[in-house]
Amino acid sequence: MxxxxxxxxxxxxRDLDHVLTSGGLPLATELFSALETVDSSAPLRRALTDPSxxxxxxxxxxxxxxxGKVSEAxxxxxxxxxxxxxxxxxxxxxxxxxxxxxxxxxxxERNGLGGLERLSDELLSxxxxxxxxxxxxRALTDPxAPAAARGTLAERLLGGAxxxxxVLVRQAVQNPRGHKPVDLIRDFVDTVAERQRTWxxxxxxxxxxxxxxxxxxxAGLKRLFGRDLKLDVAVDPELVGGIRVQVGDDVVDSxxxxxxxxxxxxxxx
Length: 269
Known about the structure:
The chain is α+β, with helices and mostly antiparallel strands. 68% of the residues lie in helices and 8% in strands. It has a 4-stranded mixed beta sheet, with no helix packed on it. Helix 5 packs antiparallel against helix 6. The chain is globular, with a radius of gyration of 22 Å.
């Protein structure tokens, strides 16, 4: 996904994060179901991505097709996507799939970083099990087998895995959208990993931190971000002084080096 589609997905993830976080698994299930409807109709995909149509007209398509069939949150996500620009009509479905996956990750995140790590481990374990068996690979991709039967087989392989893992694995097996299920699951893992990054503080300092300093830093970051973060501390003598902290896409930088660069830009500007 590139160009206008990439920009639209980035903006949708930012603007809809609170909806996806609160919606969790029920919302993800609705979005995956809507994705199947969108994928089944080329005229629908063209209507939802036609740049000559106004956003309101495209939103009307969403209301007429999904009105009363999805929750308020589901309608908000679909309407938001219909109001954005897409380079290709397939990109609408790709974005919908990623947002549904994000909602699943947000459900796992209710158990903190551990919930996200467990979900990633469960998905990767499933892929390893499938990769070790040609019989399983054939069974899970057999076009003659009913999609529901393939999904049931996949869930059996998960054993006592979380509900979040079951939703994503069943989706990948029943509706791989032209991909191998294991490849799609790797994409799901990447989405979960992006969520994990918001629980890890990547810290760069000029000199090693004493235990007391690291504890105070952890407490300060908890107040700033509202959650306990895992600290990943690196020492970079070229930083000169200060500290640089990155949590997901958020950067807190008080290093001398950065202040010098800022001053240089001002002088050059």
